[in-house]
Amino acid sequence: MVGSVIVGTGARLAGRAIGRTGCRPVLMGILLASTALHGASAATATAGAPAAQVAQQGGTVAFAIPAGPLPGVLAAYGQAAGLQILYPTEIAQGVSSPGVTGTMAPREALVRLLAGTGLTARFADADTVTLEKPVAGAAGAVMLDPMTVQGAVSGDRGRSEGTGSYAAAGPSTSATKLDLTLRETPQSVSVMTRQRMDDQGLNEIRDVLDQTVGVSRMQSGALGTDSEEIYARGFAVNNYQVDGIPRSTVYGFGDSISDMALFDRVEVVRGAAGLLNGVGDPSAAVNLVRKRPTPTVQGYVQGQGGSWNRYRGEADLSGPLVENGRLRGRVVGAYQDGDSFIDRLHERKKVLYGVLEADVTDDTLWTVGVEYQKHKSDNASRSGFPLFYADGTKTDFGRSYNSGADWAYFTHDNLTVFSDVKHRFANGWTATLNVEHSTREYDGLIGYGVRGSLNRDGTGMGIWPGRWNSTLQQTSINADVTGPFELFGRKHDLMAGIGGYYAKRSGLDYPLWFIDGYDTSISNYFTWNGRIAEPTLNPTGWSQTNERQMAAYLATRLRPTDALSVILGSRISRWEQSEESHPDGAAGTATKRSENGVFTPYAGIVYDLTDIWSVYGSYTSIFKPQDYKNVSGQTLDPIDGDAYEAGVKAEFLGGRLTASAAVFLIQQDNLAVADSGRFTPDGGQAYKAAKGAKSKGFELELTGEAMPGWQVGGGFAHTSVKDASGQRLLTYVPRDTLKMFTTYRLPGAWDRLTVGGNVKWQGEIYNGSGSRRSEQGSYAVVDLMTRYQVTEKVAATLNVNNLFDKKYMTSIQSNGYYGEPRNVLLSLRATW
């Protein structure tokens, strides 16, 4: 007996010969090496997660496993089916499998992928499959007893790619860094899977969040212009993570332009997430999880074309780079170019991502990677159009009106390198070290025409001109350990870590908003086509912002009984931010703010009522320094408060369908609220601090496979935000939203066809008062989707968005901005 292998849940393919794959590892090596030479080859860890926790009896799973060496095929199967596969190493050496594609029961898929291998399989229990090689001349199969378990620590146990499901594939660490399923997590967590993003054609993070339950997107300008706000539970969402690493809140570090080609899924933890972010909002934390290399060769190329001359090309290649499979890689690239329903607006982007991972030992996984994203918007405006004439009556602009100058542009150039090492100890503990460095640059030549008061003859308006240009850097380091321990005869879990980041923004200062001698006026706003003299903008000095955060955090899950879990955690943080400004010919100024020893407690409880139903409750505190300023130019005090949540969660059909219901209460002071019509000394919007702000509401969500071939994802959310006197706040953010997307793969002779639809509804919003009160009534937008499997490897998908061409505004704050009219997107994808 040479040894044995376990693949599937909690284990990965490693430490054995995968067999010869011809030139494919060589080809993969050449491609990834070439990518590395161009500064964009990299690595992340492989998935090893159960996709649907499907038992041997019952429902179906969508499989897309190509032919290849048997060990790699079995690893992919174990991930997709949520099963452990046990077999002696030697019986798989040099054996190939035909793979398996299609939606079917795990048992049927296993039979197909073992065809021609000479091996047989049996279910040892509902979650474990053993393979055996029949002995010649024997009356029946003889099971070879496994001796050892080989396989490096899992890089991503929650991978959704290849599952075909809208439900979370496995555990999530986004809320507490403990390895918990969504049902075991005492907070509301929504997961946008790879299949869901592909089905809806969601290519950007803003589109993903727009379809996420309990999240509202308020767009008021072109992508990349910082004129897009995301809200959850009544507050702005500013906490972003990538693979669990928090992003700085310094201006420019937001992930609003992130392209989804790089990511396996997006996990949104609604409510406060201070345990892992330290400083943050009580709205939500958004964690983008990168794609990982795969144990077998796989890939796709995709072309898209749609309304307003939008075109996109995307390619993805992944697999082993050496014959024993201990080095794997992946490269992803995308290019997009197109116009918009907004006149003259043109956008284009380039995306490149490379990732390598290596099994240094059977228990140590090393990942290194690079991602690059560049985006540019031409003729771009930071705002829409005036909602009122000077006399107080309402305007009526078309949806395509562009208030941007024809020379205005916004560019973002982002490069990130990252590496992590994970080591699994014999006692079940895992240690992880993450290091990441990000360099970014943004450049915006600003000119948008919403200055002044519009007269009915088209006069009275002008542009706000200026330029923003800065370089940003962030270096993050995090180290943590997780594992089980025993206390009072029961097994519990513990997580402990330290981490932090240093972020810097620096750049030249340019004239902004007010430029001596420059005529900003627009002669006729109704006929204006963006043509106006470009101002001369010479540097006026330089400025720099530095931010540091260091923290130690700890969390444990105690299991007093099999049905009861108590999660306790805390974080001690140090936060510091300094700003320097050095105008030409004048003495520089410097300010510094810091918060030391900030204590963030976390507590949660989960009780399993049955095998299906659980109830939970959680509490955490809120602390966030903010950059908003009042009319005097003074920075508002940090936000502080408390967040409470309670609810019920359920897993149906072996976890393939999940449901949740939550109620929440958030109390905080110093919430920044726009001081309507008032400005800071430098011309920016002034804010005032609201005392005793309170947000409360509830959320309902249903996600997964309701029946074979039928996927659903969506829910309803209600939020009410008021100040201490009971006055409603943030009236321009909807209190009620409903989102539901569903697809169905037809049975029988029609099984090549999948049809789907989406409904997104939101309640009314308003802003202002009296004759200057702007309103957007409740509305619904309907989308349709259909996919046809042309061949086993080629599929065509058509998305029709805003089918009934509903006209609605996505922003009614100081100016108006419309949502997209009816549009189509056709995608053609070939896989292997």
TrEMBL record:
What are the Secretin/TonB short N-terminal domain coordinates in residue numbering?
A: 83-134
Membrane topology (UniProt): Multi-pass membrane protein
Q: Where is this region: Disordered?
A: 153-172
* Pfam annotation, one family: TonB_dep_Rec_b-barrel
| Keyword Oxidoreductase applies | no
Where does this protein reside within or beyond the cell?
Answer: Cell outer membrane
Q: Which UniProt keywords apply?
A: Cell outer membrane, Ion transport, Iron, Iron transport, Membrane, Receptor, Signal, TonB box, Transmembrane, Transmembrane beta strand, Transport
Predominant location of this chain? membrane
Q: Name one GO biological process term.
A: siderophore transport
Ion transport as a keyword of this entry, yes or no, is yes
Kindly list the GO CC terms recorded for this protein. cell outer membrane
**Cross-referenced InterPro entries:** Beta-barrel_TonB, Beta-barrel_TonB_sf, Plug_dom, Plug_dom_sf, Secretin/TonB_short_N, TonB-dep_rcpt-like, TonB_sidphr_rcpt
Q: Which superkingdom heads the taxonomic lineage of this protein's source?
A: Bacteria
So what family is this one in? Belongs to the TonB-dependent receptor family.
Its name, as the record gives it, is: TonB-dependent receptor
Taxonomic source organism: Azospirillum thiophilum
